[in-house]
From TrEMBL:
Species of origin: Pseudoxanthomonas wuyuanensis
Chain ranges of the ABC transporter domain: 16-255
PANTHER family (alphabetical): ABC TRANSPORTER ABCH.1, IMPORT ATP-BINDING PROTEIN
Entries under InterPro entries matching the protein: AAA+_ATPase, ABC_transporter-like_ATP-bd, ABC_transporter-like_CS, ABC_transpr_LolD-like, MacB-like_ATP-bd, P-loop_NTPase
Biased composition annotated in UniProt, kind: Low complexity: 247-262
Family: Belongs to the ABC transporter superfamily. Macrolide exporter (TC 3.A.1.122) family.
Name of the protein: Putative ABC transport system ATP-binding protein
Length: 262
């Protein structure tokens, strides 16, 4: 990466930025659980990042906060430059619709709908005209290599094809962020590799892919690996790491006492 590109990247608004993010369940009670502790993180457009860790490490809590499915107990979170703490419930729903595409292990396709109808469904909530919905859904299916399967229902598709439909649906509103929770967990290894290769192509098209996984081999496909341990976030260099310039965290961007001008 050139110095000019590195400078431009540093000046760009991150699509995900957290500062001191924390989550405590049942605070002040005997059942209190500190799930997340002071998480500082920056993720830019075009990044492919894996967040991994064992059960109970805090990765699911962090995913829910990134996806605006839960609210933090402390700290701040900006999603594509928007401070989510300033949004009411309706505005949060709109942000999830417009900024984040979700992909889950279980596909979550509606069995009575065709692939095309499943992909087009989010456009209905956005009040997109019916004819435009169909055209955009067909284009999204073509982008994941399933144009010829548009009329098939989920039970007529393989697991890998169903996950591709789910990815097309997640991308239909052209969100800057794709949040994938164990997306290869229900797939065989060969099909899982195909889905991970698709994520890399999406990254190359300037989508931001955030992959939640407990599997180190899956995480190795990402450019950066963030590891959750006991609610704390750590950054590790993975085999899949590309040269995308210096590692960035929110903490690194905060001036120290010697740099302060006050």
């Amino acid at each position: 990466m050139s110095a000019a590109a590195a400078d431009a990247r540093a000046d760009a608004v991150p699509v995900i930025e957290t500062r001191g993010l924390g989550k405590v369940y049942s605070p002040g009670s005997q059942a209190e659980v500190v799930a997340l502790k002071d998480v500082d993180m920056r993720i830019h457009r075009g990044d492919f990042v894996a967040i991994m860790g064992p059960s109970g490490s805090g990765k699911s809590t962090l995913m829910n906060l990134i996806g605006c499915l839960d609210t933090p107990s402390s700290g701040s979170y900006r999603c594509d430059g928007i401070d989510v703490s300033t949004l009411d419930a309706e505005m949060l729903a709109e942000l999830r619709r417009d900024k984040i595409g979700f992909v889950f292990q279980g596909f979550n396709l509606l069995p009575r709908m065709s692939a095309l109808e499943n992909v087009a469904m989010p456009l209905g909530y956005a009040q997109v005209p019916v004819q435009e919905r169909s055209a955009r859904a067909q284009a999204a299916l073509a982008a994941v290599g399933l144009a010829e399967r548009a009329s098939h229902r989920p039970n007529e598709l393989s697991g890998g094809q169903q996950q591709r439909v789910a990815i097309a649906r997640a991308l239909i509103n052209q969100p800057p962020i794709l949040l994938a929770d164990e997306p290869t967990g229900a797939l065989d290894s060969k099909t899982g590799e195909e889905i991970l290769a698709l994520f890399k192509r999406l990254r190359d098209d300037n989508h931001t892919v955030i992959l939640i996984t407990h599997d180190a081999e899956v995480a190795a496909h990402a450019d950066r690996i963030l590891v959750m341990r006991d609610g704390e976030l750590h950054e590790e260099q993975g085999p899949g790491t590309r040269d995308r310039g210096p590692v960035e965290t929110a903490a690194a961007a905060t001036p120290g006492p010697e740099e302060s001008t006050s």
